[in-house]
Write a structure and sequence with these properties.
Helix content is 27%, strand content 44%. The chain is built from 2 helices and 12 strands; from the N terminus they run ααββββββββββββ. A 12-stranded antiparallel beta sheet has the order 6-5-4-3-2-1-12-11-10-9-8-7. This is Lipoprotein.
């Protein structure tokens, strides 16, 4: 009887041990399966993000290449050209907030192959007593390239102050001057590429003077409030940009900078 009891207990222990082994094996298999599925989902997610990023970058690069390659289909558009000053040595003074003011000078006007080039050089005034950094960081040079459809702003070099996304070639205006007209361009910020969209928000004409308000938005840009950079410009017949506002960041602090043409 005693031997029989021992045998029964032994069988029970062996069965329990076997069930535990099977259970552990099943748990391990389930964990491995879940890990594989999770890795697969992560890989798929990364692939989707990569594809979206590549598509956005490709679109932005294509847009910039189109901006750099000015294709004249005839004479440049006079409606576009009349928005900007066209007399050499014309100086424009801007007054802003937060020690931000600037001076621009039109130093070359050239018409070639049906395209009008207006070359400017600029200097951001350092009213901060040197806190803004080296003087050379506040200089910039660019040209407006006007054909029969677009006005492109092409930078030779760009000011490093204040911090903002840079596009070395982008369309800043395009026909028609109509509310809702939208286009894209590629931008660089701290070594990363972004796609920005510019939209004509408002157009008014009074006494043959046209004012055009554009808004450029770049989403998903780190360091900026709500990960968004926003730039608003107002153009006026014969004067070019007469007002500008954009957000910037320094040492984790976000703030807006405004400047308006004073003469």
């Amino acid at each position: 009887m005693k031997k029989r009891s021992i045998a029964i207990i032994t069988i029970i222990l062996i069965s329990t041990f076997s069930l535990n082994i099977v259970s552990c094996a099943n748990n391990k298999n389930n964990e491995e399966k879940a890990s594989v599925e999770e890795k697969t989902n992560i890989d798929k997610s990364k692939d989707v993000e990569k594809n979206n990023s590549e598509e956005n970058e490709e679109a932005a690069t294509k847009d910039n290449e189109e901006s750099k390659e000015v294709k004249s289909k005839g004479e440049y558009n006079k409606e576009l050209a009349k928005i900007f000053p066209n007399k050499k040595d014309t100086k424009t003074y801007y007054s802003g907030i937060l020690d931000y003011s600037s001076i621009e000078e039109l130093n070359d006007v050239k018409e070639e192959d049906g395209v009008l080039n207006l070359k400017f050089k600029g200097q951001i005034d350092d009213l901060s007593g040197g806190a803004a950094g080296k003087k050379t960081n506040n200089q910039y040079s660019y040209k407006y390239v006007i054909d029969n459809e677009y006005v492109r702003q092409v930078f030779d070099y760009h000011s490093k102050n204040p911090k903002r996304p840079v596009s070395f070639s982008r369309a800043v205006l395009r026909l028609p001057f109509k509310t809702g007209n939208t286009w894209s361009a590629a931008y660089l910020y701290e070594g990363k590429k972004y796609t920005g969209k510019t939209k004509i928000e408002e157009v008014t004409t009074k006494n043959n003077i046209t004012k055009i308000k554009t808004v450029t938005i770049i989403d998903g840009i780190n360091g900026f409030k709500n990960k968004q950079y926003k730039e608003t410009k107002i153009y006026e017949t014969g004067k070019g940009v007469v007002a500008e506002e954009f957000n910037t960041t320094t040492e984790g602090i976000n703030f807006n900078i405004k400047q308006t043409k004073i003469k």
